[in-house]
Design goal:
Largest sheet: 5 strands, parallel
Structural class: alpha/beta
Number of helices: 7
Shape: globular
Strand content: 15-25%
Distance between the termini: 33 Å
Number of strands: 8
């Protein structure tokens, strides 16, 4: 299975999430790639769009390999193998601090006039364009759970099966369109997978409804 682009994947996810139409779901997209997807899903479901700001903690000398993640509220996840590849406590503390600085800059850039929306008592759908290690999604779901949503849903087009199994206990529902054995990088499952820029994220958020009343 290969998606044409993120928008095709988002349309398919919106169909799979149809049961939440009319329930004013809060769609939280993980920047940057998932934000255009989240905008489409929120619009299709009559929901509201925001970002959930999480950052991968990169391994020493290999920043693309996740050894953990950190969420906007400061909650961190460290992979069990982190120490084995050189990410000791000092490294993880420094990397977490650096990524928190990135998160603060992104919040100021993406929603300069407000903080994150309140999730308490709401249906919350967390969207990403795919799960490789799942580190970012783990941080996002854990942090959101602490804020007492009515229902917490993870929605992704494609995921590594092992990562999907680790995610399931963290959400009330997991919607995944494709979980291939022998999973490769997320981008391998899209014919067109361009980088999403900050300007696109800001534009999507600016265009989205800013209240639950508007979203409905």
């Amino acid at each position: 299975m290969r998606f044409k682009d993120r928008f095709e994947a988002a349309r398919m996810l919106a169909q799979a999430l149809e049961t939440y139409r009319g329930r004013h779901p809060l769609v939280l997209a993980i920047p940057r790639g998932a934000v255009p997807m989240g905008a489409l899903i929120a619009n299709a479901l009559g929901g509201q769009l925001d970002v959930v700001l999480v950052r991968k903690l990169g391994a020493p000398f290999n920043p693309e390999l996740a050894v953990g993640s950190v969420e906007e509220g400061g909650w961190t996840y460290f992979a069990p193998y982190a120490g084995r590849i050189g990410a000791d406590a000092t490294y993880l503390e420094q990397e977490s601090a650096e990524q928190m600085n990135v998160i603060r800059r992104r919040r100021a850039l993406y929603t300069p006039n407000r903080g994150p929306y309140d999730v308490e008592g709401r249906v919350v759908i967390v969207v990403d364009d795919g799960l490789a290690t799942g580190a970012s999604m783990k941080a996002a779901l854990h942090a959101i759970r602490q804020r007492h949503p009515q229902r917490l849903v993870c929605a992704v087009p494609v995921a590594a099966p092992d990562s999907l199994d680790e995610i399931r206990p963290l959400a009330d529902e997991v919607v995944c369109l494709y979980a291939p054995q022998g999973f490769h990088a997320v981008g391998m499952y899209y014919a067109d997978f361009p980088q999403v820029e900050d300007a696109e994220v800001r534009a999507a958020l600016d265009a989205a409804p800013h209240s639950e009343r508007q979203a409905g």
